Records
---
Amino acid sequence: MTEPTIYELSSPGRTGVTFPEPDVPCAQLPDALLRADLPLPELAEVDVVRHYMHLSRFNYSVDGGFYPLGSCTMKYNPKINEDTARLPGFAFTHPLQPIETVQGNLALMYTLQEWLKEISGFAAVSLQPAAGAHGELTGVLIMRAYHHDRGDEKRVKMLIPDSAHGTNPASSGMIGLNVVQIPSDSRGNVDLAALKTACDETVVGLMLTNPNTLGLFDEHVEEVVNIVHECGGLVYGDGANLNALLGVLRPADVGIDVMHFNLHKTFSTPHGGGGPGSGPVGVAARLADFLPSPIVGIVEEGEEDEPPLFGFITPEKTIGRVKAFHGHFGMIVRAYTYITMHGAEGLRQVAEYSVLNANYLLARLRKTYHVPYDRICMHEFVAEGKVEGSDVRALDIAKRLMDYDFHPPTNYFPLIVHEALMIEPTETENKDTLDRFADTLIKIAEEAKSQSELLHAAPHKTPFGRMDEVKAARELVLCCWLPEDYSSQ
Amino acid sequence: MNYIPISPSERDAMLATIGVESLEDLFKDVPARHRFPDLNLPPALTEMEAAAELQELALGNENIRTELVSFLGAGVYNHYIPAVVDHILRRGEFYTAYTPYQPEISQGTLQAIFEYQSMIAALTGMEVSNASHYDGATAVAESVNMAFAQFRGKRTKIVLSPSVNPQYRATLRTYVQGMGLELSGDNSSQISTLDSLLSLVDTNTALVIVQYPDFFGRIYDYTTLIAAAHAQGALVCVATNPTALALFKTPGAMGADIVVGEGQPLGIPLSFGGPYLGFFTTRKQYIHKMAGRLVGETVDSRGQRAFVLTLTAREQHIKRERATSNICTNQGLMALASAVYMSLLGQTGLRQVAELCYHKAHYAAKEISKIPGYELCFDTPFFHEFSVCCPRPVVEINDHLLEHGILGGYDLGLDYPTLADHMLLAVTEMNTKDEIDALVNVLAEVSHD
């Protein structure tokens, strides 16, 4: 049940859209600068629509079913968000228009900055970073800039717990910092003794994911932060797991200095098959001057009934711009819509029910699958994808779940749990779905004992079976067609 | 209003299964003195109220579809987006899926990205495209990371043309902080020629970065420049406009090693600056140093052709602190938008758009250059954007244009001190002759005032 590629569907002379004839005299084209051919496919509109419709049916999605992908917060994406982001007043504004002509956009961005500050406790927020990893990069640049600004240039070490998110080491490595890994203790907290040993005058800071990738809230978070602060380091909070903390804890209140938000996780903007995300960054007051430029501010106070004039402000010691323009505005509109519909009480319920759902699944599954760090979890938990008396692995269990029409949990991450299955249900699932999922995982454990070959070969009922990944990497066919100089090499 | 589908009695049953009495009991690890803060947020709205509030905010803008006629470009452009594009993007199967980690149930996304890679490679004349970066600016910045990695840090100089979009250059400067690189040529007060740029390239140069068409709209054939840079062992990155490539010689044909750019013109709305699409292509020999996701063809266990994320060993989650980049997501849905756009237009439609842009821009340039006091800055060939020397400060002219419902060009003096009173104007297929004539009339009026 495969679908031909767009090039295979192409037929010379077809086109899916035509444009008006020029209403101006035609100018001479510069012959010497023209290209000879343009190898793009040729299809009619109906061909294109059917092709992408067919492809869409091969995808599993949140709209289609339960997607408990740990650390990704695959919650339901409200439909109203899609409508508001497409309002012509938003969608058809150019990023370089005079500020007087885009006060609606700027008011919205300013307000979202204020709301994110209120939710997190930070003193200032920039909406510019494009994704979580991009926010991390922004954050670590800010941390280093802060130290350099104080004339402290010897700090080159970033401490990263082994329960942190996978992008943290790459974000630090990318700007040339040395990464030092900090182990976890037996309850899944940062190992305080190891942290103390690693803390010295060369530490830029600690990148703390809390709740961590085990889904656990660090029981000594304030002590962890204090230890890092005492050696002059800063604490970065990975905000990817903020869903568990909305209205529960403001990260800045426990001393976190800088954190990114994932609008595409916590605030329901869709994941889009891998992006676009949006990763605003919040900072404590002492870091506010280093935020990327520009941020939205009030450039002229309003009078009585007149609203203020919003505009762009460049923080005094900014690290610079981290992308073109002002951030993923379309995602910013969606997040604004989401927050405006929730209010303070609604956001707290998001956190409470995401944690309720995770603990409910944990309670239903812990007898079947070993949970190595077993205590009250936050929005997710990590079980071992192993069954006593069977040779099946986490991968087999994940693949078998697809036969029952579930998206598998994240597997083989975090690395500190063998055969990890990282399960994050989110708050937008009902009890029936959770029960069906738990029942299915329990049934799969039975299958693992009685008919393990069924799991090794899974999935069976999906349109595609397991992939030959070695072939893909060896042959490197990355394109529907072969450019001439490609095949001649 | 919230989206939680659990009734109070279901909640109580679940709490009982867990073995706690209340929701609050689940949060005992959170320091008590900071637990459950009162958040000062406005009261929750229903969907009906939220829709009205957002509409009100949107109406606080003047948009370029119904209120203003736009001649503003400077990196992003107002093009027609066929209806099909958004209808496909609104398929929940596409937009509510995540990164295709499980290929058995993600072939829709994977094949769409594979086709995107193919069409971008075709457009740029390059061998390999990745699954995309955040935008044109970050794609340029990532080209530096890639070149730096290719030379294992042994070449430490980057030659950057000042005619590259100032926002790209600013982003690049942020990205390379602390890498110990020397940035050469990045001087907005001195707009270099190709020769002066080339004189900066030496055997310590890892990468030369130019733009095509450049920020001022000019088109140069970089073949000679690229050959000369290669003679010094340096790589060359060309940042380009995808619409222009429907007509003009590709950077690939000129010998470029890396071709990147802003994909927004390919069916993505302006949306006040994002989300857009950074495309990134290279030659196959450099593929292991390229960042970002990559989709390759393979077969599944049933012998069917299928697609997977491949060469993942390059990426952050495996290589961790030794990865070329920390990029994790791509711009999946935006890449899909551009793939649908390119599929629909095909070679005929995209050429038609490019030609319309070319003819209309040249008509506008010719008419403007006839107005006393206005002059084209350069006599180099251009595509759909050109620089005009104006008789008065650009901000004054733009104020006047705005009164007539026209969004004027970009003020080049903001970035280039020697180009005060210079305006960068963009004309696309969206601008009618009447609109261009109206622009010309108002410009003439301003020069008389």
---
Amino acid sequence: MIAAVVRDFGHWFGAVRTLRGITLDINRNEILGVIGPAGSGKSTFLGALNRMNDLVRGSRIEGLIEIDGKNIYGPDANVAELRRKLGMVFATPIALPRSVFENVAFGIRLKGRPSKAGLGDLVRDCLEKAGLWGEVKERLDTSALNLSGGQQQRLCIARVLALKPEFILLDEPSSGLDPISTRKIEDSLRRLKSEYTIVLVTNNTKQAARVADRTAFFLAGELIEIGETERIFTAPADPRTDGYLRGRFG
Amino acid sequence: MRVGPKLEQNAVRAVLLLFTAITVFILLFIVVFILRKGLPVVDLSFLSQNPVDMGRAGGIFSTIVGTLVLTAVAVVIAAPFGIGTAIFLTEYTWENRVTRIIRFGADCLAGIPSIIFGLFGFILFVTKLRFGWSILSGGLTLAFMILPTIIRTSEEAIRAVPASYRQVSFSLGSTRWQMVTRVVLPAAVPGIVTGVILSVGRSIGETAAVIFTAGSALHIPTSVFSSSRTMAVHFYILAREGISMSNAYGTAAVLVISILIINVITYYLMERFIRKYS
């Protein structure tokens, strides 16, 4: 089942063209890995899906992105709702200066006043899914800024899960983390796949090989190819994909 | 001539220490001087009685009330406008010609001598709008005077909040206003409060802008249309007219101690606030 449709999509920051002619589908409950060298437009592509790019001055688009059959750049699009539907985890873990509990509850509190018991259960549930509950259950009320980088990144995942999103967008989520923290994040992603559609932008091609069902290769703002991860890594159709994977550039 | 790095280090340290010591000494000298001259006349009756015979006898109670009310009116008016402007400049508009003009205007306004504000307040509020010499006229004038300080300090404080916090807030589906109230303002409060306290200090000590607009009546104000005398104005009149130097110093001592108390309370509250949010 197709969760998102991208057709001939292009993007500019001011006069700089960052994406050109992107056409692809994202399937429900898959992990789509997005790889490519720095400046290839992977992160911009991610930011186009939940319209975070809108926050940058001079951001412009062309083409179409449909999620659940609706044009997300259409005149009646609700951007706040869109961003709740496509939860985002950033490259550097950004805990808000609040307690662990309040970080996870942040998105819930944006919409209405949850009951105390219900909120407690939901926060626990999200922390468990993100694989962090055991490490923080004793210190939910302490500042989230005291957590380690890897813990903060899983906290960010839990915070996104609390939105009950359909998608989880991850922008190089383990770029600043050690191998053990990285493995914990990847374990979380594999568990989450059954409930969510995941788009994983990564600088680490091995990470895509480990967790992605399908992989898309971006270069200079264009989609070079997309396909089953195993096929992309063993028999890429385009010589540029092959070159990147062999470390000839990027 | 080259000197060794160690000697250079020590010389620089000594000079900077000297500068610091001189600054602190001058500050302490003023405070000690005023307290030594003023504290002997300050007792409970000085604080609780109204001035008698133009301030030759009695206390300064009505001027304490006048100072507090006038400052409160000024801050209550200026803070929402100032903080609101700062929020608009940082969160609700891109940097452009208009924002630069607003900022330039605020900086110019901050440099205008307070007596000009007094004259402006006298013409606009006292005579044109017929508020008379009153708490309202004085409070509005002070509000104009402290507005630029509040705008600029709030803007700096808001700007200092990491952009990543805003990104996170938006990515979790907050509206811009939710982002401002739940993420940006809590993080910026210490800086904003510092600006407001600076303004309170300026208001409390202000004479020129107040004497033309709030007047110098010695009774306790009964409404915002009452004329009222502040401690700073009282001090000025007592000293200038040679009514009572000892009571003038007494007033000055109370003024200095009040500002000290306000600062201590504020820093205490801020400590607690910061602990809660980080």
